[in-house]
Amino acid sequence: MAADLSAKLRITEIFHSIQGESTRVGLPSIFVRLTGCPLRCDWCDTDYAFSGGETMTVGTVLEKVAALGCPTVCVTGGEPLAQKGCLELLKALCDAGYSVSLETSGALDITPVDDRVSRVMDLKAPGSGEEASNRWDNLARLTPRDELKLVLSSREDYDWAVRQLREHRLAERCPILFSPVQGQLAPEQLAQWILEDRLPVRFQLQLHKILWQDSKGR
Ligand SMILES: C[S@@+](CC[C@H](N)C(=O)[O-])C[C@H]1O[C@@H](n2cnc3c(N)ncnc32)[C@H](O)[C@@H]1O
Ligand SMILES: Nc1nc2[nH]cc(C(=O)O)c2c(=O)[nH]1
Ligand code: SF4
Ligand SMILES: [Mg+2]
Fold first, then answer.
1. DSSP E strands: which ranges in 45-153?
2. I want to staple 184 with a disulfide (CB 3.0 to 4.6 A). Which of 24, 76, 140, 153 is the partner?
């Protein structure tokens, strides 16, 4: 069935930049940032997307994306899956031939997302203050096309992440990303722990924050 292009979405911004996160890091990409999030991660760098925004149809978002002329699209937020219309947007983007990734907190069911989308899902560590929001049944749904990210603010978070990695055999499911919370955990410290423990994970630094000091981190 075709996507519903009349479905409505609340959108904070649509922009063209260098992908700063996930295994797609470095690729020119279009970002579609959906407004609103039911979580409040302690260290969230995107609180400007919690409210405001502009209502648009999926069809209008497609037109704005097409005008930016880039084959790779990242749908993010806020929490994109908190809006029903997000599923229609993801399907419409895939139908139009884009290579699509979705950044999601893992607090909402990822099952209904179009199979062609690469789901980049966070597992919220205790330091985020949102550990209780993790939907643990999402883990079993991850495929090698998806990615799992753990954003860590301390040694306690790191130890917690290593336990999850082992207990849920996460590295067998999909690529695993360990990223320091910017300004809270020194990147070189996290890198050293990963090396010492011989972890099969990918160290990640938000590239856009190295490239640009813009408060919105484009
Ligand atoms: C702003 S969130 C939007 C998507 C979704 N709500 C989520 O949490 O995955 C995009 C990504 O930025 C990460 N992020 C947010 N603030 C950060 C920070 N201060 N340092 C490192 N990563 C951060 C999140 O963990 C998430 O992986
Ligand atoms: N350049 C850039 N890359 C990104 N990758 C994921 C982002 C996000 O906020 O989800 C993001 C972002 O905000 N900027
Ligand atoms: S879930 Fe994502 S957007 Fe929401 S508060 Fe956490 S990092 Fe920010
Ligand atoms: Mg960001």
1. 54-57, 72-76, 99-104, 118-122, 147-152
2. 153
- Structural domain boundaries, residue 79: 8-211
> How far does the centroid of ligand 2 lie from the alpha carbon of residue 205, in Å?
11
How much is the pTM?
0.98
Nearest of 185, 201, 174, 166 to residue 110 by alpha carbon: 174
Which residue puts its alpha carbon closest to atom 8 of ligand 3?
A: 44
The total domain count for the chain is: 1
The residue contributing the CA closest to ligand 2 atom 9 is 76
User: 217 lies in a domain?
Assistant: no
Residues with beta carbon inside 6 Å of ligand 3? Answer: 37, 39-41, 44, 46, 77-79, 105
The domain spanning residue 91 has which CATH number?
3.20.20.70
Is residue 1 in a domain? Answer: no
Q: Which atom of ligand 3 is nearest to the CA of 43?
A: 7
**Cα–Cα distance for residue pair 158/142, rounded to 1 Å:** 21
Give 15-28 pLDDT, tens digit per residue: 999 999 999 999 99
**Cα separation, 185 vs 190, whole angstroms:** 7
Question: Mutation test of ligand 2: which of 16, 44, 74, 205 has the most ligand atoms closer than 8 Å to its C-beta?
Answer: 74
